[in-house]
Write a structure and sequence with these properties.
There is one protein chain. Helices cover about 25% and strands about 30% of the residues. By secondary structure, the protein is an alpha+beta fold. The protein has one domain (about 1-125): 2-Layer Sandwich (60s Ribosomal Protein L30, Chain: A). Strands 1-2-3-6-4-5 form a 6-stranded mixed β-sheet, covered by helices on one side. Strand 2 and strand 3 (about 25-30) form a beta hairpin. Helix 1 (about 45-65) runs parallel beside helix 2 (about 85-95). The model has no long low-confidence stretch (mean pLDDT about 95).
Length: about 120
């Protein structure tokens, strides 16, 4: 069984994909970028503010799926520059104070809308 997750509390998909899919006891959340769902605008220019916005978007999608950040088992962080790793990591750590999920972090040459960070997650339902 496969269910599509949609919420207005996170940015709508900007392409042919779903915000998230629930399947097999998991929710697979598509990569989120720092778009404010209320305004449609990109968060401030620094990576810390963008990371916070991305994690708020992920939290909203997980809530709509009936789960939470506490149930995230894996994240992938895409950074435009590894030079932003420390600033991103500081904000990221605030969202998982204990037992953080497994994570991969990679530097990429470009992200949608030229943002600095994108994060996707897999969580238990």
């Amino acid at each position: 069984m496969r269910d599509v997750v949609i919420t207005e509390h996170a940015p709508q998909a900007i392409g042919p994909y779903s915000q998230a899919i629930k399947a097999g006891g998991f929710v697979f959340v598509s990569g989120q970028i720092p778009i404010d769902p209320a305004t449609g605008l990109i968060a401030q220019a620094e990576v810390a503010a963008q990371t916070d916005r991305v994690l708020q978007n992920l939290k909203a999608i997980l809530t709509a799926a009936g789960t939470s950040l506490d149930n995230v088992v894996k994240t992938t962080v895409f950074l435009k520059s590894m030079g932003d790793f420390a600033a991103m990591n500081e904000v990221y750590a605030r969202f998982w104070k204990k037992a953080p999920p497994a994570r991969s972090t990679v530097e990429v040459s470009r992200l949608p809308k030229d943002v600095l960070v994108e994060i996707d997650v897999i969580a238990l339902i």
